[in-house]
Amino acid sequence: MRETLEAIRDGRMDVEEGLARFRAWPVEDLGHTQLDTHREARCGDAEVIFGQGKTPEQLVEIARAALEHHERLLVTRATPEGAARLCAEIPRARHFPLSRTVTFEPHDGTPAHGLVLVVSAGTSDRAVGEEAAVTARLHGARVEEIQDVGVAGIHRLLVHTRKLQSARALVVVAGMEGALPSVVGGLVDRPVIAVPTSIGYGASFGGLAALLAMLNSCAAGVTVVNIDNGFGAGVAAALINRA
Amino acid sequence: MRETLEAIRDGRMDVEEGLARFRAWPVEDLGHTQLDTHREARCGDAEVIFGQGKTPEQLVEIARAALEHHERLLVTRATPEGAARLCAEIPRARHFPLSRTVTFEPHDGTPAHGLVLVVSAGTSDRAVGEEAAVTARLHGARVEEIQDVGVAGIHRLLVHTRKLQSARALVVVAGMEGALPSVVGGLVDRPVIAVPTSIGYGASFGGLAALLAMLNSCAAGVTVVNIDNGFGAGVAAALINRA
Amino acid sequence: MRETLEAIRDGRMDVEEGLARFRAWPVEDLGHTQLDTHREARCGDAEVIFGQGKTPEQLVEIARAALEHHERLLVTRATPEGAARLCAEIPRARHFPLSRTVTFEPHDGTPAHGLVLVVSAGTSDRAVGEEAAVTARLHGARVEEIQDVGVAGIHRLLVHTRKLQSARALVVVAGMEGALPSVVGGLVDRPVIAVPTSIGYGASFGGLAALLAMLNSCAAGVTVVNIDNGFGAGVAAALINRA
Amino acid sequence: MRETLEAIRDGRMDVEEGLARFRAWPVEDLGHTQLDTHREARCGDAEVIFGQGKTPEQLVEIARAALEHHERLLVTRATPEGAARLCAEIPRARHFPLSRTVTFEPHDGTPAHGLVLVVSAGTSDRAVGEEAAVTARLHGARVEEIQDVGVAGIHRLLVHTRKLQSARALVVVAGMEGALPSVVGGLVDRPVIAVPTSIGYGASFGGLAALLAMLNSCAAGVTVVNIDNGFGAGVAAALINRA
Amino acid sequence: MRETLEAIRDGRMDVEEGLARFRAWPVEDLGHTQLDTHREARCGDAEVIFGQGKTPEQLVEIARAALEHHERLLVTRATPEGAARLCAEIPRARHFPLSRTVTFEPHDGTPAHGLVLVVSAGTSDRAVGEEAAVTARLHGARVEEIQDVGVAGIHRLLVHTRKLQSARALVVVAGMEGALPSVVGGLVDRPVIAVPTSIGYGASFGGLAALLAMLNSCAAGVTVVNIDNGFGAGVAAALINRA
Amino acid sequence: MRETLEAIRDGRMDVEEGLARFRAWPVEDLGHTQLDTHREARCGDAEVIFGQGKTPEQLVEIARAALEHHERLLVTRATPEGAARLCAEIPRARHFPLSRTVTFEPHDGTPAHGLVLVVSAGTSDRAVGEEAAVTARLHGARVEEIQDVGVAGIHRLLVHTRKLQSARALVVVAGMEGALPSVVGGLVDRPVIAVPTSIGYGASFGGLAALLAMLNSCAAGVTVVNIDNGFGAGVAAALINRA
Amino acid sequence: MRETLEAIRDGRMDVEEGLARFRAWPVEDLGHTQLDTHREARCGDAEVIFGQGKTPEQLVEIARAALEHHERLLVTRATPEGAARLCAEIPRARHFPLSRTVTFEPHDGTPAHGLVLVVSAGTSDRAVGEEAAVTARLHGARVEEIQDVGVAGIHRLLVHTRKLQSARALVVVAGMEGALPSVVGGLVDRPVIAVPTSIGYGASFGGLAALLAMLNSCAAGVTVVNIDNGFGAGVAAALINRA
Amino acid sequence: MRETLEAIRDGRMDVEEGLARFRAWPVEDLGHTQLDTHREARCGDAEVIFGQGKTPEQLVEIARAALEHHERLLVTRATPEGAARLCAEIPRARHFPLSRTVTFEPHDGTPAHGLVLVVSAGTSDRAVGEEAAVTARLHGARVEEIQDVGVAGIHRLLVHTRKLQSARALVVVAGMEGALPSVVGGLVDRPVIAVPTSIGYGASFGGLAALLAMLNSCAAGVTVVNIDNGFGAGVAAALINRA
To answer: What 3-state DSSP class applies to C123?
Structure first.
């Protein structure tokens, strides 16, 4: 901005062009989606494509366009067909079927700093946990996972106490009664990001029970993301880990 | 019933009187409330009066009528005025202000059998826990209480593991995220009755969050009563304890 | 624990090994799910596998691993394919299609003690009732069932009054308005476990109407489990029956 | 209308007056509320004033205006102050404090036809039951009440079976689990109007539990009105009774 | 009952048999469902089978058993396959595909008395309206239907005012904002049974919007049944019409 | 009306015919749906057919009947099969697959006045935006669209500020947190119609989150339509644009 | 902006000052609230103060500050004390107690253009209607009100049909079932803004029933604002009226 | 633990004492509440007392006990009476009336590191923002606040962009539509903790609207705490800031 003003002062740019510049934002139109090509510079993060509802053709086209401007790309909620097509047509695609994610990274991978710990309560919560783990890793975090440590077998969790306390940020994933983040939050003095999952039936109401439980956690320092939103938790954990 | 039929067969009773008898049920009318005077015989339990919305005068009148047929009487949700009046006008009344209960027992008390353990998560959950404890004791159970063992300080609970495992039935009271019954349920092989409380704010929605969490408990053997329903939990625990 | 401390005192065990022992918990990793191999000893209960969302292959693998440590195994929410595969590949599998359960028991069966009575309101509630019945039986209870005794034909229920009063614990299953547990609870002085089902339409909201009705039951001694949770009710009833 | 057209045809009325007549509706403006003075003729019913939110002065003014056109007047949800003022200032006012209603009738009362039976489950449901009873009587029905016949003591209800079957229409009032209308509906072949009350606590959610239960009643022939809406039930029952 | 007592008095029956008779209720077991064979005598109504969730084979078997005791039979929520099978295998079956009902009547039909008017707001509400109409007719009512008279074109409704006022009972069916019963209720002095339908999208929440609107109707005399419950409305209307 | 009265006065029409005329409303019966053939005259708008739940045959029949009385016709929520059939069988049909709309216009199109701006937040919100745009255009508005301007990249929206301020009415479409209408509403002094979409997952609850957010918008001048109701927003915007 | 750039080009302003200007926004800090003093110029509207939760002292201070920059000021949700203080201390204050609004206008008032019609269903809805009317008038609209035209007495509304059709924008206020906007929307071809009120009881759930009904209105062209939000409706109507 | 084992090995401690030690947890009983006196050591944080529902006497007693073990103490939700009593009786108490907090710090205060930025949308959201700010500061963070930057005046927020980007963690507080965290989240690459407030009316449902909006934020990196939970947000932000 200063540069533009100086150019106008110096007569190197006329007023009309200055006005146009101020109005020109780094936006590129692809027909489907506007890509903000400055984002990686601004945030140092990977570009992300939300795969749900996109055809395999659209996915490939958008991914190719994104990879012209970014070294790292994450596709979430990829359909099996979309993932297969991405892997077949674009080099270095890596598919994680459990979490329905596809990643693209440079040849030398992504540097891994700090430690984000992803803890999931039940077998069925692993998919969401993996989405958080893949996301955090692609945003520059070293990631480890602890699984099957539901609160009804509290000793399974307690054996990991030291590990829990070594993380910079924790993502805790649980469905049903959503109690795990409260217990973990009481064991550590680090930020805990709670992810409710839609695992459960009847009065779980698609994850609402776990969501409400987590929002009412008696452990201070616990924050919450949307139901099944492993991606959001992974980004938040990576941001904390990076600080 | 057999007796009546035999009397009819033997001509000691005519048909009209027989019909009338079949229709006559043990019900007595007091103006305010019909009292079922057979209940103690049938259930072996104390008579119970729900105090809320009743004037001190009504409370005293109903309690007096009940004590003509019962040795033990429990008044729940008594207003301070109602409790004071009961204590002033009827002998052997005992008031528990925290839980808003008033009890009446014979001179030699109530025999205490087995063990019902009432566990409450936070300071604010104690009132509901006391209602459960008073109720269970008046229905013939030996009762102990463990307090302030919320899941965010899990070690506070774990020191009581042996005690927890010694109960015949457990009442576990918690507000906020309502996680305590799941943890307790995983430590014992006894029936756990979960009581959600309305303690909490915001998205606790008056205890809904804790209620849903408890209904979705991953610990099998946990059953749930209504929000703040210490009385119901106490009755259920006493019934289990008595079996 | 005492044993370990004595071994350390006596020099038979060094401190490092003692520390390791304290940290070593009875946990075994199978890739899919951690199995707690001490549970049967602790609880005297069958191992349980939640079948939903597992492939037939996973089911067989997990069931085989469990049967190495347990004599009795219960698979709930088994898909037809999963159930067929279990019956084909593992001896002594028994399939209950209505309730989607598969059981494994020793040659001489499971001893049946006491009496758990499973009462269901409508034809459609039977599946959930059967899940409760199968579960309670596999946890050591003698079980009987009463069916099609909805409250709109109250006489159908009343003919069973004596039977109802003979049970140690009752499981009462109802959808729609969920009124049956209140009526049953008024007829017996035993613990009643209410199971709301998702049977109904419109404003039943997937069982919410029945759930709320049961939580608000005017009959003391009624506790509630999650919608369609016949399994949880069966475990709780067996625990009460065993006491 | 025919009359007006004939008058125009015969030249007894000009077109402008005819147009005006078609547009003139029987509406009178009082400042607070438009009174439809034709209603009694059309419906044969009492005029009704909703008392809530009106000052004693407004109540008296509106009641006086109404009584110029109607012989019978019903004031619902009257505040104690409003009721007292009405009784003090207008002759033949009769106050029912439990249901917060005030009635005005001609000297020779209101003829009472048929039979509307108002059945209420608990002591606390009586106020709503009385509102229904007062309303139905003022709309020309003979009314009887049965009280304290909750479903947890089913025998209390069953002794009234013959009486229940003798009514032309039944109003059944219940809070908490709202099960009574289903049981009553199974005992009679007459229309049953169910009134949920806000009696209850916790997960009764201000009467929502009872409302949902009644809407899901398994007894055909049961219809439902709003929570605590004794007035609406009374009107509907009177309309059925009159048919 | 009197008969039995007299027989005992007269020595024509011994006490044991008398006891047995009192306990023997008219209940027959078919494996799937207990049929109450006394119902028609008691209620004068058709037997009803809820078709949803039943196989064609079950439907035919239950229908045949019911027709041994009843002259009139109504099957609701019949699947196309079930309806086809009923029509193919049992004489006098009549299928109404829009409302998914199948009826069985005697050769000389069912006498039609009074007038039940079924009014539906939109094209999509007709199916529920037809269920109400078929049900009411099979329960002895003369039935007429008025269709496509939504409140946004109020003149379409007003042309039917005289017809509306001629009915003994009205069933008013509407989805979306559910406003029609209020308008109809203001035009007639007859009982109006409102049926919310699940027609609508977004914030209609499966008919909840219409249900709440109808429960809050400002027109007195309106009662409500469950969402899409044309059957319940038809039974209630027939009961009113018969009175 | 005056005309009819004058004819009666002048003896050119007899009273019976006058009565008939007053009762004759412009309504035509097609079997499926009553068409109000006066609507275009009254409203100056296109006829609209709601396609959902109609067979291709019904759609074609209703569309043909409508086109006899209207020049412009809009079919919303058309199934792919229905749209294909309409395009194949009726001239000048135009299909917009994204929004599932089909339009029919005169050869010389529809005059376009003023400016309605349709702004959508995310890629997935475009379908609803297109429905609004097509609807507004067919009701006589000039329409432009701005897409992919979600609030998390606020600069993408701000570049369009001048364009936003040039519209007569704005339709703002957003799912997820539904924040866009508040931001747009703060930038313009024109009426903003907010359309929540069902885009989102978990606690979006099918668009409820966006709906509530929009209803609580802190920007005055924002009004809201139902979830995914692009059609309703388009009509409202066209009415405003026309004023 | 152009002006600033030209000044820089011409050397009349240096770059630092230009940068500062771009960053300087028209914002003034009063301690309590930032006032945007450019708003009237931008929007041509009155300044608005939300009175709820502010002390009389704060209200007076904020109002005085606002009146330095604005000729017209609207205070909504003023407490009685706050309103009295404003009237006592600031000239030309005008208090509307029913709607809890206070207005300030220039000596020659506010020009009144077009016609906004505010229609309210019941007596209790008038307060919200007045808030809408006062707001619209202060934003430059000529306003008229129609009251007590609930849908259960549809003829009361129909006499106003011509008046309804003469407005540029309509605000329709209703509680309970919220049906009035649908009926009005069917009578006019103008934008209708529906305002649900919290009037009602039981299942009105504080206005939720009316809100949902309005969102599901079958009349196209109806848009909705928040419960009791007469202010928002008034602003939107004035914006439409002005167009 | 190792120490204890070594003492046992070395014979300096016998087995019984070792067992006792393992069972002895750092818990102290005060009658009202168990205080965990090790917490500050473990977490480096202030002790916190939840003031709501405690009498002034209890508050002073608990605070005194806590200050024996902690240098810093935070009392939240203090009643005015409780706060006054604390300030009168204990030195160095500091009261923040807007947020109802009272703090106790050592003479030399609390070191302030990093930067936590607390951003609040409206005037009414400041109280919750202050609770977050006070909490974060007492947990060791340097804190700044930005106020009155609601999204409907987006330029007020944008002038702070550089400041926003300089924080280590941001707490964003908003009621009504809760849109601010999404906009802020799009401007920074730091963790954003969103706090919904109960500010709003009607369909805000006590903060539910803002809560759902924040959970559905389209800006990755946003996590959410309970409604009005400034304390929880402050703790989480301080933990992130400290990392």
So the answer is: helix
C contact residues 131-160, partner E, Cβ 8 Å cutoff: 147-148, 153, 155-156, 159
Sign of torsion over alpha carbons D131, D137, D140, D146? positive
CB of B179 within 8 Å of a chain A CB? The answer is yes
Report the residue of chain G nearest D196, measured CA to CA: G202
**% pLDDT > 70, chain G:** 88
How far apart, in whole angstroms, are the C-alpha atoms of residue F184 and residue D238? 54
The answer to whether E8 contacts B11, with C-beta atoms less than 8 Å apart, is no
Q: How far is G202 from chain A (nearest CA, A)?
A: 24
D98 closest CA partner among D128, D57, D121: D128
Tell me the whole-structure pTM to 2 decimals: 0.87
**Smallest CA–CA separation between C74 and chain E, in Å?**
26
User: Phi/psi class of residue A178: alpha, beta or left (left: φ > 0; alpha: ψ in -120 to 50)?
Assistant: left
Amino acid symbol at A88: A
CA distance F161 to F217: 19
Burial letters for E113-128: b for 16+ Cβ neighbours within 10 Å, e otherwise?
A: ebbbbbbbbbbbbbbb
Which of E20, E3, E23 shows the shortest CA–CA distance to E12?
Answer: E3
Considering only residues F192 and D221, tell me which one the structure prediction assigns the higher pLDDT. F192
Q: In sequence order, what are the beta bridge partners of C119? A: C146, C172
CA dihedral sign of residues C46, C51, C57, C58: negative
Output the 3-class SS for H77-115: CCCHHHHHHHHHHCCCEEEECCCCEEEECCCCCCCCEEE
Instruction: Say if CB F201 and CB A226 are below 8 A apart.
Output: yes
Task: Name the DSSP class of D52.
Answer: T
Assign residue G135 a region (left: φ > 0; alpha: ψ between -120 and 50; beta: otherwise): alpha
What is the widest separation between alpha-carbon atoms in chain E? 73
pLDDT band, very low/low/confident/very high, at E29 (cuts 50, 70, 90) = very low
Per-residue burial over C19-43, b = 16 or more CB atoms within 10 Å of its CB, e = otherwise: eeeeeeeebeeeeebbbbbebbeeb
Distance CA C225, CA B236 (A): 14
Q: Is the pLDDT of residue H31 over 60?
A: no
**Partners of D93 in the beta sheet?**
D104
Decide: E and F in contact? Rule: 3+ Cβ pairs under 8 Å. Answer: yes
- Among A221-235, B79-93, G152-166, G180-194, the least confident range: G152-166
The CA radius of gyration of chain B, in Å to the nearest whole number, is 21
- Which residues of chain E are within 8 Å of residue C124 when distances are taken between CB atoms? 53
φ, ψ for residue C222 (rounded to 5)? -95, 125
Report the alpha-carbon distance of residue D86 to residue D103 in Å, rounded. Answer: 10
Interchain contact F205–H (C-beta under 8 A):
yes
ipTM of the complex: 0.83
Q: Which chains touch B (3 or more CB pairs under 8 A)?
A: A, C, D, E, H
Spatial separation of the C-alpha atoms in residues G241 and G166, rounded to whole Å: 12
Q: Which residues contact A10 (CB under 8 A, 6 or more apart)?
A: none
Q: SS3 breakdown of chain C: % helix, strand, coil, rounded to 5? A: 45, 20, 35
Q: Are strands E113-120 and E169-174 parallel, antiparallel or unpaired?
A: parallel
Which pLDDT value is given to residue G31?
A: 47
3-class secondary structure, D141: strand
Report CB contact under 8 Å: E204, G217: no
User: Cβ contact (<8 Å) for G243 and F243?
Assistant: yes
Sequence-ordered list of residues with C-beta below 8 angstroms from that of D238, at least 6 positions apart, any chain: D45, D116, D135, D136, D139, D140, D141, D169
Tell me if chain G has a CB within 8 Å of the CB of E185. Answer: yes
Q: How far is Cα D94 from Cα B169, in angstroms, rounded to an integer?
A: 54
